[in-house]
Amino acid sequence: MTLDYLRPTPWDVRNFHIDTFEVMSLEEDALKQTEEREGHYTIKVDPFDNPKPLLEHGFYYVDTLIEPVCKKKKLNRFDQEGTTISTKYDRASILTIAEETFAHGRFHRDFNIPNEQADKRYMNWVSDLIDKEQIYALKFNEEIAGFYGFEKENVLLLGMSKDYRHKGLAKSFTSKACDKHMTEAGLSELRTSISAANVASLNLFHALGFRLESTKDIYHKLNRRSSGR
């Protein structure tokens, strides 16, 4: 029996209009499966893994993800007057902020993905989280300034309106959202993943008490050829 090393990611099919998969192994048999069907592929590997097999099979590097963790008792809490966390918000306002937030995601760095498709991918992700009630609104003096997206123990997304950036609000917003997230879900720790290029976010989460646990290199591949053609 041939093992299937490809995990479909249907949430990305709607954005890129091609089958999309996460490759679950660096084994040769897994990489060969990416040659046999059209699709866009993602694989996450240890930075110390030899990338030669990936390059030989047409994969290309797009990003390194830093994966920090914070225990609840280690969370540093900040309080800036006027900052609050709310589950009541206008959907359109959150999506407007999302539209201007994710200009440097890994799909924006993929030269095979048009920027408008990468934009759509992140917008759809935020929209899905709103539907699942996994978004907190970050409010300053009752005005929506940003959002915090989460799932289980994972901090997924953090976005702030350009009108509220560089005003010393991020630590207060994020620490309050993390505290609410852990308390409401009964969690003892939180995890997140941050692009190594996103220095501002790395510094923010380090200030909150998150500490590095692991890193992953991300490679993509686009195969528009399928067998039998």
From TrEMBL:
Residues 92-229 form the N-acetyltransferase domain. SUPFAM superfamilies: Acyl-CoA N-acyltransferases (Nat). It comes from the Bacteria. Signal peptide: none annotated. GO terms for molecular function: acyltransferase activity, transferring groups other than amino-acyl groups. Pfam families: Acetyltransf_1. This is N-acetyltransferase domain-containing protein.
